[in-house]
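*** Protein under study ***
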Amino acid sequence: MINRKVVAVLCAVLLTLAGCSRQQSDWQKTRETNTADAYEQFLKKYPSGEFTAQAEARVKELYEERDWQKARDADTPEAYQAFLKQYPEGKWTEEARIRVENFTLAQAPSGAAAPTGADATEKTTPPGPAVPVPAVKQTPAPATRAAATAPPQAAAGGSYRVQLGAFKSGPEAAHKRWAELQKEYPALLGGLSSKVLSTTTSEGPLYRLQTTGVSEQHARQICGSLKAKSQACVVVPPPQG
């Protein structure tokens, strides 16, 4: 009787190990395939397995990548608006918002003031005043060789700005992004100052990260260089009047 119980326990252990080994093998194959269909098939087979959470996260990422590529291919305000509605806090949300603002600025009448308080991602949102958000004290970016080679006009002042991001999570996210961009592009942004403008939209507060005090030529140079590196940005002219 004891031997039978021991055999039964051993068989159960072996079956468990075999099941784990099979799941690991299937997970490895799924990762190598790396498609949404493959991950969904894995989830059907192992709805509550060891790798379920990872598979669900990867499916979400792949669908977002697919929908973002569709929005970029269409390249219309409506396509980016639809993407923002579906992914309000996704990987490409920030860039989608800025691309919508690019279209808004491009469609504005010549000589009209650039929108700094109204939510450019919602045409029906009533304009609201832009409120400067107190800046977080930041350590200046270290001087590098790239910064030393920055073009002469980098030091020139002006009343143009370059918008580098639009954040819903709070001003801290904007300040953090500024520090990252300065570190990544010292030749373009080294020595410049930034500010965060707060505005209220139909979806809640929005915080815009902008450089300050650059000439029109310098602003367009910065934005052109960043766009060439697939970084979203938009040139913001000074208010009229």
